[in-house]
Structures
1.
Amino acid sequence: MSRFHEPQDPRFQRLNASLGVDRRLWPQDLAQSRAHARMLAARGILTEADRDALLAGLDAVELELREERFPFEAHDEDIHMAIERRLTEIAGPVGGRLHTARSRNDQVVTDLAMYTRERIGATQAALRELMTVLVARAEEHLDWPMPGYTHLQRAQPVYLSHHLLAYFWMLQRDRERFAFAERQSGRLPLGAGALAGVNFHTDRELLARELGFQEVAPNSIDAVSGRDFVLDYLGAAAICAMHLSRLGAELVLWSSSEFRFCELPGEWSSGSSIMPQKKNPDAAELLRAKAPRVVGHLAAFHGVMHALPLTYNKDLQEDKEHVFDAADTLEATLAAATGMTAGVRFDRERMRAAAADELIAATDLADLLVRLGMPFREAHGVVAGLVRTALEQGRSLSDLSAAELAAHSSLLGAHRADYQRVLAHDSWLESKVSYGGTSLARVREQLALARTTLRSSPEGDAHAPA
Ligand code: ARG
């Protein structure tokens, strides 16, 4: 296989070989080779007898791989060379004809594009599952008040349903990003040859149809050197993993003894080896910790591609490890997020009590003054003064007398009844009537939109299968 007399330095082989990583591309490689053999015969480049011998040989190779008895050899550089070697051992010299009008350069990127599309399909299904669970949990907790936070300080109350649906919309945008990455992986590189095209009238349209590609890559140089579909995939995966890390972080926080907003199911918790009372949210913590690893794959492979001269360079061999680990990591965390979200039990009373902190109504009090004619900035100052007085004297806002209110603002002194009404808990949430807000009517509207969104394709195509 080599024009050199010297055997390769084993240290070079260790660096150069990619078999340990790319062996999982064998199903794509076999599918591609079958389509390629059929196309060559259809174009008269191979005889039908040669095609049939190749297809039978590929079947035999597949059986060995499937049953994990494929005889890998120490000098197999990658899965593509290993399969071709074995095919030739099984089928005889005709095995050598399979590589007609094909280079490893268009072969590897075609396999990886097929693989990436398959993993995107699995990720899309997993995303839909998690989103379905989020909608169900939101419906179940439609009117459970909880504090909404900014700076992790109690800010304004919201319904738990509204908070859960926030994750739904993050994941919907992830679906859109994965759909984009899928389209970017949908241009067939095969047929580009080493870089310049091949010396045969091949039928790339036929290959594209057989292998499930939407179109044929129109430039052979771009086809063998481009990997931006990998970056699109890794980008979508990195953002999605980041979203899951935020969900994981909130589950850790909310299940802590300090919050006690929820309890994670036993199936998703670990005990401590030394402290019998502990119930550790390990899975939720790992949602946090796995995300930067996916981001790392994006950054690392972006670095590989940066300033890389055209066309194929061995640098590009690194693409696969990043895709494989990103996909494995993301799918494992998506499954865990789904399991935990489905099983977590929320504590209605704890959440309600935390949301009943009167200070949380400060914005609503300011809005009352606005409705009574005061500019918002001024109202903000008045309410800040009330909060200071109440905190200094260890009293609640609703304790303050009309005279005390009047000392801060005559307008407020004259409207103590309205003031008290604003401080009555239920008004805080139901006053958020704007589109996308937390009032029940708006959350119901949002739930309906979420259900429609789930029924349509990732990018909102209403004709897509349900
Ligand atoms: N294992 C290599 C890769 O993954 C195969 C391509 C090698 N092509 C070449 N011209 N050396 O990229």
Note: Residues 18, 22, 78, 104-105, 108, 312, 316-317 surround arginine (CB under 6 Å).
2.
Amino acid sequence: MSELLELTAAQAAERVRAGEVSAGELFELYRERARGDELGAFLWVSDDDPPDTPPDAPLGGVPLAVKDLFCVKGVPSAAASRILEGYRPPYTATAVERLNAAGAPTLGKTNMDEFAMGSSNENSGFRPVLNPWDRERVPGGSSGGSAAAVAAGLAPWAIGTDTGGSIRQPASLCGIVGMKPTYGAVSRYGMIAFASSLDQCGPLTRDVTDAALLFRHMVGRDRCDSTSLEFPEEVRLPKAERLDGLRFGVPPELSGEGVEAGVREVLDRTVKLVEELGGVVEEVGLPHSPHGIAAYYVLAPAEASANLARYDGVRYGPRKGNGDLLSLYEETRAAGFGAEVKRRIMLGTYALSSGYYEAYYGRAQRVRTKIADDFRAAFERVDLILTPTSPTVAFKLGERTADPLAMYLSDYCTVPMPLAGVPAISIPGGLSDGLPVGIQLAGPAFSENRILDAAYALEQAIGFDGSGARV
Ligand code: GLN
């Protein structure tokens, strides 16, 4: 194995800048790795000539794996759905364009749950993804391809999207770092929409420094996304070694019932580490967060039912039917969407229908407001919130496919943050029975610098070794 594969993306970029390796060599090395993918992580790998990256480019020519729901000009971009098979967008998503421009060329498109609906990657319209720590287990979802690719060393770094946990949960199950930024911090332009008031793009990386580096080059207002905002400060590369003066709140609602013993142990160990590093840990309530899953599974499907109305066989992807308009719609959608996507469209359409709108959608919106209020109150007392990322380690393929509710509970700890619009990161906290356990840190809107600093200090203290997943 090339020793280049041992490097984080930031270290590889340093080597390129120092002239010790060329960006082209690095691209070729990872292209070969991605082509040899046995995990199902990639849906498409670039066969372009390695781009000519200027040696002083901030991202050093280090190639980037991109979740399949980002539009990339001329490249298959299907959000892992059969209904978009063959679609090659005429433009590139802003986040991808910014990262390409900063010197991270697109290596390939990664597998995912269809339209980002899922927690295990088993809902991909093409094939599932295997967890590199144990190939009988899921990598998490929906950004499972991005997480597995980074963990296995098939890509130096990746981007994904998080609507209810889709960056943080797969990062946790694959033993890597994943951050969901503040809503609006990164442009959603060119991201195939799932639930527009929740979707956010973010990094999946080997370590916290790589996450900060990628994040730094995708943030900021974009005139193509009216919900995007200028980030109020410069995104710094983290360097904190201590946590002195920082107050951490552990919400009992997200760390008690339903959390596996091995996960709880890692959380307890992390709390001790926080204290050793000078941080103060206290209990802080997020009383409405247990209702997050219920509210999310009304709001996200409602938005999805509207966003997915455009896939009607007229404008994108394969067309079915026997000539009349109704059969064109019906048969295209019947053949093109997978079972989970259909379930969400039905749930969402029902929740928005006249007579039920107030009882479901209106009520879920009020719960969402209460969850956001809980976070505001908590952040008056503490600087950061500390929870497990996922209540369990990676589960077996097929284990939860027959039971949508069990699958939905995978996101119990990650769903409240996007409902409140606040940022959160997952970092590897250790292993339980040989499988990675993620620890989540959340902070107020635009506190990414604080989150990254604290995550970095903890990362150094934890000293997690991810080499067990490298293939
Ligand atoms: N697993 C959650 C869902 O199925 C979250 C997905 C996501 O964040 N995109 O909706």
Note: The first helix runs from residue 9 to 17.
